Amino acid sequence: MAAAATLEAVAPTGALRGLVHDFVMGQQEGPADRVAAGVKSGSYTVLQVVEALGSCLENPEPRTRARGIQLLSQVLLQCHSLLLEKEVVHLILFYENRLKDHHLVIPSVLHGLKALSLCVALPPGLAVSVLKAIFQEVHVQSLSQVNRHTVYSIISNFMRTRDEDDGWGKGSP
């Protein structure tokens, strides 16, 4: 009986690992929507997605890391409303750290931050932290127009969803 329960728990994560592999290595876009659908339906958690991406996110090849972060970012864009505050905090810290990564990874990181900028569960002060990290780590003026627009969208989302008590008042950068 316990073995059957363990097998049931492993099967979804095995399927998730297959979808992650298909997206990252196969250069296919469809698996991202299937992973997001799995998160929305409760078949997977965001933590399981991150765990399935583990080796991709640590890969020495920047393109592989970029694809892994791109998958996570696409899932977050579709599932941001499901995130809890503590998940948002950990994801923000992860994405802020990834802003220091190779320039090929930055567009995917910005898309993830855009998704997180839409979260209602974003604690006060993190919006300012994200913007500081972006402007300290990324030479925004050198980005392509599409990626500059993503940065603009992050700022716009924060301005629309945050109030002055979140650090947007006088004296804020």
Map the helices and strands.
Layout: H1 2-26, H2 30-41, H3 46-57, H4 62-79, H5 85-98, H6 106-117, H7 126-137, H8 145-161
Explain the overall architecture.
The protein is mainly alpha-helical. It has one domain. 71% of the residues lie in helices and 0% in strands. The protein has helices at 2-26, 30-41, 46-57, 62-79, 85-98, 106-117, 126-137, 145-161. Helix 1 (2-26) runs antiparallel to helix 2 (30-41), helix 1 (2-26) packs across helix 4 and helix 2 crosses helix 4.
Mean model confidence by pLDDT: 87
Radius of gyration: 17 Å
How many domains? The number is 1
Distance between the termini: 58 Å
Structural class: mainly alpha
What is the chains' assembly state? single chain
Q: How are helices and strands ordered from N to C?
A: HHHHHHHH
Tell me the strand percentage band.
under 5%
Question: What attributes does this structure have?
Answer:
single chain, mainly alpha, MMS19 nucleotide excision repair protein, MMS19_N, cytoskeleton
Short description:
71% of the residues lie in helices and 0% in strands. The protein has helices spanning 2-26, 30-41, 46-57, 62-79, 85-98, 106-117, 126-137, 145-161. Helix 1 packs antiparallel against helix 2 (30-41) and helix 5 packs antiparallel against helix 6.
